[in-house]
Design brief:
The complex is a heterodimer of chains A (about 425) and B (about 170). Chain A is of the alpha/beta class and about 425 residues long. Chain A has helices at about 10-20, 40-50, 75-90, 105-110, 145-150, 175-190, 205, 210-220, 235-240, 285-290, 300-305, 305-315, 335-345, 345-355, 405-410, 420-424; strands spanning about 30, 35-40, 65, 95-100, 120-125, 135-140, 155-160, 160-170, 195-200, 225-230, 260-265, 275, 285, 295-300, 325-330, 355, 380, 395-400. Chain A has 16 helices and 18 strands. In chain A, strand 2 (about 35-40), helix 2 and strand 3 form a beta-alpha-beta unit. In chain A, helix 6 runs parallel beside helix 8 (about 210-220). Chain B has about 170 residues and is of the alpha/beta class. Helix content of chain B is about 35%, strand content about 20%. Chain B contains eight helices and seven strands, in the order βαααβαβαβαβββαα. Chain B has helices at about 15-20, 30-35, 45-50, 70-75, 90-95, 110, 140-150, 150-165; strands spanning about 1-10, 55, 80-85, 100-105, 115-120, 125-130, 130-135. In chain B, strand 6 (about 125-130) and strand 7 (about 130-135) form a beta hairpin. The longest helix of chain B has 14 residues, at about 150-165. Chain B starts with a strand and ends with a helix. Classes of the chains: A alpha/beta (about 425), B alpha/beta (about 170). The interface of A and B includes residues 41, 141, 195 and 392 of A.
Chain lengths: ~425, ~170
Amino acid sequence: MTDMKPATLTEKIIARAAGQKSVEPGEIVNVSPDRILSHDNTAAIIKHFSKLGVKRVKYPDKIVIVLDHIVPASTETYAQNHLAIREFVKEQGLRYFYDVGCGICHQVLPEQGFATPGALIVGADSHTTTYGAFGAFSTGLGRSEIAVTWATDQIWLRVPESYKIVLEGQLPPDVTSKDIVLHIIGTLGADGAIYKAVEFTGPVIAGMSMASRMVLTNMAVEMGAKNGLIYPDSTTEDWLGEHGVSGYQAIYPDEKAEYARSFSFDLSGLKPQVAFPHTVDNVQPVSVAEGIKVQQVLLGTCTNGRLEDLRAAAGILKGRTIAPGTRMLVLPASRNILLQAVQEGLVETFLRAGAMVLNPGCGPCLGAHQGVLAPGERCLSTSNRNFKGRMGSTESEIYLASPLTAAATALEGKITDPAKYISS
Amino acid sequence: MIKGKVHKLGEDINTDVIFPGKYTYSISDPAEMAQHALENYDPEFVRKVQRGDVIIAGKNFGCGSSREQAATCLKYAGIEVIIAESFSRIFFRNAINNAILAIVSEEIPPLAHEGESIQVDPQGGKIYLQNRIFIFPKLAPNVYQIITDGGLLEHVKKRIAQQESR
C-alpha cells in the first residue's frame, strides 16, 4: 500500500483534472476542466477573448453555451448580444450550443449529459455548483477567467477544505429539500462555508430524487461554498441512464478522508422555511412569515423549476384559484420539463388557477424582464436569492420558500403554511 | 503608494447591490458600469468616490452572483484596494483579475471610519491608517503579477505573446 493520505471527493476530482496524484487543501493548482459553461454573458466573454491574441478556442467541444438569462431577447441590445453569440458559435464550430427556448443552463447541462460523476466543470455563473448533485466538481468563475480558459484550457483553483453535512431524520410531508437548504443556510450563515467544498450526505440524501439534490448543491453557493457535492449512487445512475448518459467514471471519497468540519442536522419535525429580505440566511419557520401580503409568486428557476416542483405546486393548486390581486408566474427550468408538464396536465392546472406560464429561462429572477417588482411590492419566490433590488425596485422585497409554500401563498395572497393544503 | 479616503461598508455586501442584475447584459462599457457602482447600496457613492479611495467592509464582501462587473465597476470608479473581513470567493478572483488589491483583515474593518485618510503600499504590504501601520500578507508573486499587469486579460495576453515569440 502507498502512504497516500485519504482524500475527499473534491480533492480527488481536482487532482485528476490537474494531472496530479494528489492535492492538499490550500494548494493552488492549474486544472484542465472537462466543460466550460457560459450563457447570455458569452457576448461579453467573446469581447474579452478577442483581446487575448488568439484566434481559436483551444477545445471547442469543452465549451457549452446556453442562452437562458434574457430569453427571448426583450430589447435590441439583448438581441444583438444573442446574435453575436450565434455568429461566434458558427465561426468557432461550437457543437454544444443551446439557443433561446431550450431552458436554464443548470437544467440543460444535466439533461444533455454534461453533468457526470467525477467531471470538473467551470461556468460563468455562480450557480454552476448545481452539478455537484451528480458527483461532479463544479464552480463559478468570472467572465475574464472563462475567456482565458477558452484560450488556454487552464485555470487556477485553490484546493478547498471540505465540510461534511449529514442529513438525518424523518422528513415531514410538507418539508422539501428547499426547506432543508434554507434551514442549513440560516443555521450556518451566508458565509458559513466560504471557500469550502460542502459534501451533503446521510440517510435523507439517500432517499432524495436528483431534482431535490440539485436544490441543495444549487444553493450551496448561498453559504459561500466553492462547490457542493453529493456522492453518486443508484439514484444518480438511474437518472443518467434515463437520460441516455453513459461512459462516465464515478469517483468516490476515501473512507477516512479528513473534513475541516462536520455538521449533523436532524430534520424530523422541521417546518417549512422562509428566507426573509434581504439575505438568504435570514431564515425563519413559515409560521413567523404567515400573513405577510404578497403581490407576486414566482415558481420555478434553476433552483425549483423541475417537474417534481411543478407537480408539488400543482397538487395544491388543482381545482382552486389564486387570490385576487396576486400574480403567479410559473417558470419551468427547461423545454423538456415544460413539455412533460403539458403532457401531465400541470400547465392546465396552473392556467385554470389563474397563473401565467412563462417560457423556460431565468425570467424575473435577476430583475431584467418578465415580472419585475414595483416599489413596495413583495414577491414570494422559489428562486435562490432575495438580495435588495434583485427583482426590480430596491423598495421591493423577496421572500424565498419551497414550491409547496409558493402554491399555498398564491392561493391566499399572503405567506401561508402549506400544511393545511397537504393534509386535506 | 495608493492614497485616498475610506468608504466604510457593512457585512454581506452582495453583487446585486454593487452592480444590479438589470444592467448585467445591457452595459458593456466599463466607464458606464462605474456610473452604477454600489447603486443599490448607496446611490451617492459614485459622486463621493475618488481615485485612490479604499473600500473597507465586513465579512463576505461580494457574495452572490459571479458577475465580474461588480469588480469592474468599482475599479473604474477609482477603487484599487478593498479591505474586508472576508471575501466571497468568486468576487475575490474577479477583484484580482480586474487589478484590485483585495486584502483580508479582521483587525482593520472594526477600527476604520467613513472618510478617514488611508494609504496602502501594495508592494510593501503595509496599510497606514490613524497613525498606525498595519501589515498585510503579500499576495503570491504570480497572483500579484496579474494586478501589476493590469488584470487577468492583459496578463494572459502578455504570456501568450511571449510564448509565440519564442
